Amino acid sequence: MRSAVLGIKALAVIGLVAGSFVLTKPGAAADQITITSWGGALQLAERQAWFEPFSKETGIAVTEDEYSGDAAKIRAMVESKSVTWDVVDGWTLWANQLCDAGLLERIDWTKLGLDRSRFIDGDKYDCGVPSFISSDVIAYDKDKLADGPKTIADLFDTKKFPGKRGLRKSAEVNLEWALIADGVPKQDVYKVLNTPEGVDRAFKKLDTIKKDIVWWEAGAQPPQLLADGQVVMTSAYNGRIYDANKNSGKHFEIMWDAQMSGMGNVWVIPAGGPRVDEAYKFIAYAASAQVQGTLTKYIPYGPANKDAMEFVSAESLPWLGNAPDNLVNAFQSDPAFWKDKGDDLNQRFTAWLAQ
Amino acid sequence: MATAIAKSAGFGKDMLLRGELQRSERRRKLCAFALVLPLLLFLVITFVFPIGRMMFNAIHDETLLALMPRTTAALAAWDGNDLPDEQVYAALAKDLTDSWERRTMGAIGARMNLELPGAGSQLTSSARKASTLSAGPYKAALIQIDPLWERKEVWSLLKRGGSPYTAYYLLRSVDYQYGPDGQIVATPPDNAIFRAAFLRTLGISVAVTVVTLLLGFPVAYLLATLPPKSSNLLMIMVVLPFWTSMLVRTVAWVVLLQHNGIVNQTLMGLHIISQPADLIFNRFATIVAMAQIQLPFTLLPIYSVMRTIPPSHIRAARSLGAGSFYAFWRVYFPQTLPGISAGCLLTFISCLGYYLTPALVGGPSDQMVGYFIANYTNKQLNWGLASALGAILLVATLLLYYVFDKLVGVDRIKIR
What we know:
The structure holds 2 protein chains of 2 kinds.
Chain A: H1 2-24, E1 32-37, H2 40-58, E2 61-66, H3 72-79, E3 87-91, H4 92-100, H5 109-112, E4 129-133, E5 136-141, E6 165-168, H6 174-181, H7 189-193, H8 196-207, E7 213-216, H9 221-227, E8 233-237, H10 238-248, E9 252-261, E10 264-268, H11 276-286, H12 289-292, E11 302-303, E12 331-332, H13 335-354
Parallel strand pairs in A: 1-2, 1-3, 6-7, 6-8, 9-12
Antiparallel strand pairs in A: 3-10, 4-10, 4-11, 5-8, 5-9
Chain B: H1 2-56, H2 63-67, H3 69-74, H4 86-102, H5 105-115, H6 119-130, H7 138-145, H8 152-160, H9 168-173, E1 176-178, E2 184-186, H10 194-225, H11 228-239, H12 246-257, H13 262-269, H14 283-307, H15 312-319, H16 324-352, H17 356-361, H18 369-379, H19 383-407
Antiparallel strand pairs in B: 1-2
């Protein structure tokens, strides 16, 4: 009997403690916001260009978190109703998928006070505000390869450029490049890729260099592959290449032909978070013309806000994916196509890899 | 009469004693149970429940049932032979209009894309147009809007959606899928990846287990027979990697084995090879790196069993005339078997779940099931498929454990 009473008391104590947690979790610290980004050189730049000035201007403290760019954690947070990330620097590739699943807040552009039509691809995302443009490009080391590749066809030309090539381990980007290199006009790429014959054609082209490919998955890998001499050329995100030149004294060069722009970053707000208003305040600040372009001072990812181009630092301009000179032969990727066919093509791609 | 009374009294006493005994036994059991209760609760809350919940995802999916309730209900009576009748199309038109207003067609489309790639965007565009339809007949109108609605596989997919349970994810995990008429067919070879991945996982695990056994057994023997002073030093060298993160150890292999890495440079410096050899991003690197990480797990149980084998056994065998190999093979080795099976089982089962090491040092054709589970969880966000793969891996592991138990007997295993 005594032990039963003790047990009840213990339970009551546990209940009280647990209850106090529940009570203190929201509510506290109104003037702060948690922003999650990709870590590394990018987050360092964002901190200097956006997070710290925002805190200074508004008095809202910024707590930072990092993630790998995978959306699984957002889904887990929202579905378990324990959202702790107020704003996430998300990725174009999954922004719409999560939006459709109801995992992100729909952006109210009037509340934001920004002009949606002034944003590159602004109309493509109902749950995201484009923050900057990153491009998938081909890069090589000028110290080792004086006469580098000129067109995307050179990526597939192992006679002219013998040696290994680095490519991102994913179906997207590679299938498009294979078709362009095989002579498909850029505007027809997705039309061709939408047919079984087109998919076969793309894989057949990739077959020609399959044994010469080193696959990478994290953005930090390609500069390392180049520096180690593991590859003669590699696909990469343009900002990482500039970062290696600036901070590690490398002489890497970017080949802009068929650069895949349109894969960039968007600000998203996980649905049901406790500080949606502050999140809006931050996005309105960071995506404004005067502020968005200042990121280029620290890392050369071009602003998605067209009005921000005039605030871009002159030094970084040649390295930006959306600088006019670099856009001449650019290829516009189509997130809608990948939303539809991504699951199927990625499975085929995985099967092809393992063959 | 008197004897009968005496008997019944004895019987009563007996009952009393038994009751007392049972009570004290029960109290003891209760006490023991109370002691393990915290751990049990901990395991249930942090282990059994989440894993069970995750495995439930493998067979449970109500996307279509919840978001297209009218269509799936109307399809219950459909026989699957011809296209459904007007009533079903009317239900579809209502559901599409609804989903357009509630913006749920994205979620429906994502689910449909899994089985019919490309159907998602057709669904979205039909939902937009269907929301403007004011009156029937809907069948002709919807087919006019998009030919998707005269494809029978769409209807059999929606009919299957009428149940909250689906075999789709489990089927896909073993390279089967639903055909156009709802029958089960093999996944086309271009897309079949999972059966090969399961076999590869088994193969790599067996190979790593064998390598660790071949490397670990002699070292364990040395450790067990050396004088304590030198064996302690060796022991530290064996255990040291335990304290290093697995990620660090794996990346160390990248540094060693890469194209211009230390191994290649040494070999070229010694003029053994003239071109750098392909040492990394292949099966060789995967097995080498995994074996290095798993070595202590195989070695330690063997070592602790060897420590308990008295050296006098071998001496006795030798003095009775056995040759040194015969004495080892017939007297010593059989006594180490419980340690060997414990170590190998430990390594083999840990290997089945490997993900990080093959991802970093393996090539694309060396990826194990763990890689696909991580990929479908984190990147593709297809948690149903990830759960199905995980469930199959778990069941296969338990099955192997059962077979092992039948063949060797788990109770014969000795860790110490």
